[in-house]
Amino acid sequence: MSPMELLRINKHNQDYAFFNALNQEAFPDEERWDLHHALHYPIPADVMGIYDAGKPVGLYMALSNEKAVYVCYLAIHKDLRGHGYGSKALKCICEHYQGKQICLDLEKQDPKADNAHQRKIRKEFYLHNGFYETHYSMNFWDLSFELLCFDAHFDADLFRELCVYLTTDEIDPHIIWEG
């Protein structure tokens, strides 16, 4: 595979329709941010297209400051999943934010969930690609997510600083120690 590129998305991007459709397909309604809204959200967000050999293959959205990054969303096009693009994208994202604490979330493991197998595979994917369990969760929108970090040491206070950007009348994230 050729080198991957991360390029900022905007509504004038020639691949905007691809990214918008991917966002709609990859995330359930209750977890999805509207792409147009994300591009205009008044926070330090990176809304980025993931390209391989000049072709769009995925997208991610991240909040960042000088010390930490929270990858809110990461998706690879459904036809390309299982072909190494996700691992390659994670490596590229981690290199892009080198020197910062990089965190992401995923649905908590629940054997009774309709997508229990998918949740298990997703977590195994992130652990296989260098992320660690933090023993913290984040709750908002009546949903609960497990937090993973691309470092064995997770600084919850750094992550909480990023969550200030998320806090609105509709979103009030709570970081909870589960250890």
Automatic annotation (TrEMBL):
PROSITE patterns per UniProt: GNAT (PS51186)
Keywords of the record: Transferase
Family matches, as SUPFAM superfamilies: Acyl-CoA N-acyltransferases (Nat)
Residues covered by the N-acetyltransferase domain: 4-152
Example GO molecular function: acyltransferase activity, transferring groups other than amino-acyl groups
Tagged with keyword Transferase: yes
Name of this protein: N-acetyltransferase
Organism: Intestinibaculum porci
